Amino acid sequence: MSESSVFGILVRMPSAEALVEATRAAKRAGFRELDAFAPFPVPGLVEALGYRERMIAPLALVLGLIAAAGAFFMQWYASFDYPYVVGGKPLNSWPAFLPITFEVGVLTSVLTAVFGMLIRNGLPRPYHPVFNDRAFDRASSDGFFLLCPGASLVDVETCLEEHDVREIKELAP
Length: 173
What we know:
The chain is α+β, with helices and mostly antiparallel strands and about 170 residues long.
């Protein structure tokens, strides 16, 4: 394949430990935007890839609190703007506002977390060049793969020559 028709280099590793070590070596060699695929969570792989906290949980909490405060304010404002006395209760009967306040806060937090996760992970992804590789089907059963996007085959082979590599191949875009 010519350089322009290559998406990246896909490396198949024989085990989870080899995948972690190869990922660390590739990271040290300066490869960026690495991605790894394994059939189960591999301890140490996330750290080797350099992922960090994405602040989705604090963002969901803050937006949930803001939405809850907004829902409470809207109920309080409506009770004075459109006074409707039921059973002699005062207009500012805050316990009656709590169910809607709670539910709006929880709903906003959950939607923020779900959509934040989808956006930050780039999902849904109906197409990825690794799906064209027949061997990649094993990533869900017993395959361990390291993807080096934008890298050349020679650079990856040089970087991983001391590691236990099962297969190295170029991926078409």
